[in-house]
Specification:
alpha+beta; 6-stranded mixed β-sheet; about 30% helix; binds guanosine-5'-triphosphate; binds magnesium ion; Translation initiation factor IF-2
Length: about 375
């Protein structure tokens, strides 16, 4: 078989080699431009970039077993339908991110379930005018940049919280930078409208200066004036999110496709073992399915939603707690479904071995020991 070389492969799919190298690093594969990669790895890379890898084995004439790799544009195999937007809340310290998340959640719980108690699973869903919105409520910046480093879009819309009495601050701009690099559209929540010294015009001007011209100033940025503390303007910010989602073409998924998702947080729980909260990105997850996530695997024992209820399935953009993991997977890691638990275990073990090999190689590069010594 002819090897698949990173440089050639990048050329074939029209990407820069360094981009593939960093994606490989995310898979714990340490490659250079001239490294050859395994077929299944190439398959995964191709998939990320919307290609399908086709391996043609030359029969008669060619050397036995020689293969020619052909990459073709993937046919629209998936039937994409709109899904709820996945939203994260970013902003400067103390500008009211946590208060806003709590207020949105409470407002929704009270109206729909008459005092029901929500479970903390790292993300939750609310309804606005019959449309669902998924909020990620784990540490904004960390989760966001970690996920971004993995080259994936886990967030569809960023709500940038700006306190009206303070205006844009260094971390506001930093958050805006993150959103821009990830090409995630931004909706601005001008918070603390009730505070003395609240100055909306100043914030709008600052938005203008940052190429976030507000809609009513002829720009395209949706915003809402809110007081997270007093629960004012909450409907307005939800409306802005829904409007933004409507004009964002990428907020689609195939509920019938292969299941994929991303871990939001994971923990060990008394009586439940390792559990992980996740957001489903493609397909529909059901109990009994087998998952792999890095070095951990799972036969889904239970699915629990943000209201603490056991559910029978979780579709695209659903936040869900998954019970049944071999160990807690890492936040920001992606998982996929495999045939059965045995396969899942095998994949997880292979991933563990890959990591150990990588660590050994790194050690060796530092000249401390050889790979053979370690195995
Ligand atoms: P960090 O997580 O520390 O970055 O802060 P945060 O952005 O999550 O802010 P948090 O929600 O903790 O709010 C910070 C302070 O601002 C708290 O004392 C809140 O009560 C207050 N606060 C939040 N929203 C409002 C608001 O709408 N009006 C007023 N007056 N105070 C608010
Ligand atoms: Mg907070």
């Amino acid at each position: 078989r002819s090897p698949i070389v990173v440089r050639d492969f990048a050329l074939q799919i029209g990407r820069k080699p360094f981009q593939l190298i960093s994606e490989l690093m995310e898979m714990s594969i340490f490659a250079s431009m001239n490294s050859s990669i395994e077929e299944d790895v190439a398959q995964r890379l191709a998939k990320i970039h919307g290609f399908a890898l086709e391996v043609r084995h030359r029969g008669e004439g060619g050397a036995a077993g020689e293969a020619e790799k052909v990459v073709e544009e993937k046919k629209p195999a998936r039937e994409m339908v709109p899904r709820p937007p996945v939203v994260c809340i970013l902003g400067h310290v103390d500008h009211g991110k946590t208060t806003l998340l709590d207020t949105i959640r409470k407002a929704n719980v009270v109206s729909s379930e008459a005092g029901g108690i929500t479970q903390h699973i790292g993300a939750y869903q609310v309804t606005h005018k019959d449309k669902l919105i998924t909020f990620i409520d784990t540490p904004g910046h960390a989760a966001f940049s970690n996920m971004r480093a993995r080259g994936a879009r886990t967030t569809d819309i960023a709500v940038l919280v700006v306190a009206a009495d303070d205006g844009f601050m260094p971390q506001t701009d930093e958050a805006l930078g993150h959103a821009r690099v990830s090409k995630v559209p931004v909706v601005v929540a001008i918070n603390k409208m009730d505070a003395p010294g609240a100055n909306v015009d100043k914030v709008l001007r600052q938005m203008q200066e940052r190429d976030l011209a507000p809609e009513d100033w002829g720009g395209e940025t949706l915003y809402a004036k809110v007081s997270a503390l007093k629960g004012e303007g909450i409907e307005d910010i939800l409306e802005a999110i829904v409007l933004q989602a409507d004009v964002t073409e990428t907020i689609v998924a195939d509920p019938k496709g292969e299941v994929e998702g991303v871990i939001v947080e994971a923990q060990k729980e008394l009586g439940r073992g390792s559990t992980a909260s996740a957001i489903i990105q493609q397909g529909t997850l059901k109990p009994g399915m087998a998952l792999v996530c890095g070095e951990n695997y799972c036969r889904v024992r239970q699915l629990i939603n943000d209201k603490g209820e056991q559910i029978k399935e979780a579709g695209p953009s659903s936040p869900v707690k998954i019970v049944g993991w071999s160990g807690p997977p890492d936040a920001g890691d992606f998982f996929k479904v495999v045939k059965n638990e045995r396969e899942a275990k095998k994949h997880a073990e292979a991933n563990e071995l890959d990591r150990k090999k990588l660590e050994a190689t790194q050690l060796q590069e530092r000249g401390s020991t050889s790979v053979d010594d370690l195995f």
